[in-house]
Design brief:
The protein is α/β, with parallel strands linked by helices and about 650 residues long. It is about 50% helix and about 10% strand. The strands form 4 sheets. It has a 7-stranded parallel beta sheet with strand order 13-14-12-15-16-11-17. Strands 3-2-6-7-1-8 form a 6-stranded parallel beta sheet, with helices on both faces. The longest helix is centred in the N-terminal third of the chain and has 20 residues, at about 200-220.
């Protein structure tokens, strides 16, 4: 068995490694660590041991600073076991520690690094009995958690005489519970935010979640939220906190602007008594309040940690100087009336002024983008160096259609193509049935949405429907169970409504959504509001068609799945998904009020500030060229659209208008 080293004692190889990194002034040489840093980065990396917030602008080398700080601590003789690196993904932690290892000449390092869940899991195993758990507790993933909720939900419905269609599904109950924990809100507040359920339904959700908590504890199990909450509770126990904080004296945190109230509590607990906290973040990139992140923790760092130091890394090494002038001017609208504003120092020259193109409608906008992509490829720019960033998923439809027409390969990081999304295909199934009652796949998809109509029942229904000459009247005569009859009667009522020969296509969609599908979405989907936006867009799209046949043909052609096209493709993604990525050319379409900023945020000052931060993230993804655009009319609905307030906040000097 190896003898344990005394605290602070170093091996011969470590002593030799450290000696080789000493500069002429007797201090650790960053140059000998293989680091090329600017003066601001050097100050941060070599900061004395105290609570420190490093505010790093987009493109300022945040990751380089954090990894260099870890390497500097190690090279200065800080033992590995005293350092903890907290990140928001385990991938980020692995990549950072690999960089540190490379800086130290490939020397193997064993620093505690990872997400709050990963680090918390280690301590929860060790101190499980302090919280009333056994060390072999089970970790429930999201699917496991939802399954347990369903085991409670089913008997609850039976006991209270409720139908499945009258109560939210397991994933909605899980979503409500998790949101309440991460946002530090009551279920009443969550429900008010989402505007979903009546009080008696909310009371039922609460009852089920109480039983869920009880069952987990009885089963010696924790879900992902429990792991974070219980990590915080561990640090409330003085002896446990003291033991952990005496081992980990140097806490480093990445993406500090994204922490929530529980993570803030954990960080404070870990740091108590040490005051060697080193956090890196950018308040201007705080864009996740909808999942509980709270920008006030980075903005109020000095209120939590007295005598703390704040350092600023202002140089941007990513973007053209003209892009940064626009970004700086925009984001400083969040700091009106405040003494401290954002200052971005451009490293790259100012060569390419961002452009703004006013387009008539969606199709003209998409055509403009396609033409610009062709222009860049002719100049030798690869497809993979270009991206189209959108405020939300539902805006992809026209862009995809036009890019396909132009033979431009693309990939979606935002999710499914518009017409591949489940809720869109569900509505189209009703319309396909109206157009062709013999369409078996449409019938099966449509009928499967109704309670009591399981797979086997639906197969029997279609066989009976076929035998009745594909007449809806024939469905009424089929013998089914009492439970199946309720679902079948609801479906027949909707079909009779939309088969009215005088009903428009948008009228059919509106009828389906209003009479059934909206309530179905509320109880089955946790991203209800986003899906509702998709259906509103589908409704507006239908307004441009007189014949159902033409509409469905167009939709089905748009639904064709792209073939594998390799890596050299244009990226289409949401701004949220683009964070941390960059491209030579970025297209930012649909800069319209009620789209960007979103309609829900426009009457909320905090919401507008977060949307402006999202705009800042979007424009700073561009390395060389930024192309902004907005539409005057939605092509299908002929609804007038107005330029985004963020465009109106810019000055003419910030962009070139394209005629």
């Amino acid at each position: 068995m190896l003898a344990r080293r005394k605290e602070g004692e170093k091996t011969m190889s470590e002593q030799k490694n450290i000696h080789s990194l000493i500069g002429d002034d007797g201090k650790i040489s960053l140059h000998k660590l293989g680091l090329t840093l600017d003066d601001e980065q050097i100050e941060a990396v070599m900061m004395e041991y105290r609570n420190t917030l490093v505010k790093a602008n987009a493109g300022a080398g945040k990751t380089r600073v954090l990894t260099s700080r870890v390497a500097y601590l190690l090279a200065s003789g800080i033992p590995q076991h005293e350092i903890m690196l907290l990140t928001f993904t385990n991938k980020a932690s692995r990549e950072m520690l690999e960089r540190v290892q490379a800086m130290l000449g490939g020397r193997k390092i064993r620093i505690s690094g990872g997400t709050f869940h990963k680090i918390g899991g280690i301590f929860l195993r060790k101190y499980a009995d302090s919280l009333g758990y056994k060390s072999n507790f089970t970790i429930l993933d999201v699917d496991d958690a939802k399954s347990l909720i369903e085991e409670i939900r089913k008997p609850y419905l039976k006991e209270h005489g409720l139908k499945k269609s009258e109560f939210p599904e397991k994933k909605i109950i899980y979503h409500y519970g998790s949101s309440a924990i991460n946002k530090n809100m009551s279920l009443d507040w969550i429900n008010a935010e989402e505007n979903r359920f009546a009080p008696h339904i909310l009371w039922g959700i609460e009852e089920i979640l109480r039983e869920y908590e009880k069952r987990k504890k009885e089963a010696n199990a924790m879900d992902f939220d429990d792991m974070i909450v219980n990590f915080g509770k561990l640090l409330d126990i003085p002896d446990v906190r003291k033991e952990i904080s005496s081992q980990y004296k140097y806490i480093l945190v990445d993406e500090y602007q994204d922490i929530n109230h529980i993570q803030n509590k954990i960080i404070k607990g870990l740091n108590k008594g040490n005051n060697n906290l080193f956090v890196v973040g950018d308040a201007n990139q705080a864009i996740y309040s909808w999942r509980g992140s709270d920008v006030s923790y980075i903005e109020g760092f000095h209120r939590q940690y007295l005598n703390a130091e704040t350092l600023y890394i202002t140089h941007n090494y990513r973007s053209d100087g003209e892009i940064l002038k626009l970004a700086e001017h925009s984001i400083n609208h969040n700091y009106e009336g405040k003494s401290k504003k954002t200052k971005i120092n451009a490293f790259l020259p100012s060569e390419n002024k961002p452009t703004l193109f006013k387009t008539q409608d969606d199709f003209k906008q998409a055509e403009y983008i396609a033409e610009q992509i062709h222009r860049y490829t002719r100049k030798g720019v690869a497809y993979e160096d270009m991206a189209i960033l959108l405020r939300t998923n539902f805006l992809t439809r026209v862009l995809e259609k036009v890019l396909r027409q132009h033979g431009i390969p693309y990939k979606l990081l935002a999710g499914f193509s518009f017409f591949e999304r489940k809720h869109v295909k569900d509505i189209l199934a009703f319309l396909r049935f109206v157009e062709n009652p013999k369409d078996e796949t449409a019938f099966i998809r449509m009928a499967g949405l109704f309670d009591g109509l399981g797979e086997k029942t639906v197969e029997k229904l279609f066989a009976g429907f076929k035998g009745a000459g594909y007449e809806v009247e024939g469905l009424k005569k089929l013998k089914v169970t009492k439970r199946a009859k309720e679902g079948l009667d609801t479906m027949i009522a909707i079909l009779e409504g939309i088969m009215n020969p005088f009903m428009t296509i948008e009228g059919m969609i509106s009828h389906i959504v209003k009479e059934y599908y909206d309530a179905y979405l509320k109880r089955t989907e946790d991203d209800y509001n986003e899906r509702k936006n998709d259906l509103e867009y589908l409704y507006e799209t239908a307004n441009g068609y007189d014949k159902l046949t033409d509409f469905l043909s167009e939709m089905i052609l748009d639904e064709v799945v792209q073939e594998e096209q390799g890596d050299n493709v244009v990226t289409i993604t949401t701004v949220h998904k683009s964070k941390g990525l960059e491209w030579d050319c970025v297209f930012l379409p649909y800069l319209n009020d009620a789209i960007f900023p979103s309609g829900r945020s426009m009457n909320q000052p905090e919401g507008i500030e977060e949307e402006r931060r999202l705009f800042y993230v979007a424009v700073t993804r561009a390395r060389k060229h930024l192309h902004m655009s907005y539409i005057e009319w939605q092509s299908m609905s002929y609804k007038p659209m107005y330029p985004s307030m963020f465009l109106q906040e810019l000055l003419p000097v910030h962009y070139q208008t394209i005629k």
